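Hello,

Our lab assistant flagged a job as stuck in the queue for most of the afternoon. It eventually completed. Since we weren't sure the result was trustworthy after the delay, we are filing this so someone can double-check. Below is the sequence as submitted and the structure that was eventually returned. Let us know if re-running is recommended.
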Amino acid sequence: MMHHVNGKGLQLQGNKGNGNHVRRLSMELVRTYENMRKLASANAVVVFSLSSCCMCHVVKSLLFGLGVGPTIVELDEEKNGKEMQAVLYGLVGDGEQPLPAVFVGGKFLGGVQTVMSSHINGTLVPLLKDAGALWL
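-- returned structure --
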């Protein structure tokens, strides 16, 4: 994921899904984005979630079951949760649900589909170990 700040806002560019996508965030959301990026970089695993979201619960349960203690941000309980959700929409491709949003080692991993696929194909645990979220 690359990001560029100019006078009009923040441009997020990544190649999630079926090719490259670019999202532009307003200057008002740049501070929110930077705070989220700092949080993700300072913690091994961060899950942005909604407390009533069943798929968010699935991801959190999987991580807890693996022995990970992720930092969890429940957007519906945060003062600027709507702004954070808008930033997450900027990270995902068209038509994709942005929650849950899982960051591992400071990098955006994805949502429930990516996390579950990584778990099934055996790549999730090595990612978690590399990020320092698992020691075994």
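-- support follow-up --
The delay was a queue issue, not a problem with the job. The result is valid. Helices lie at 27-42, 54-65, 81-91, 112-120, 124-130. Strands lie at 2-6, 9-14, 21-25, 45-49, 71-74, 101-104, 107-110.
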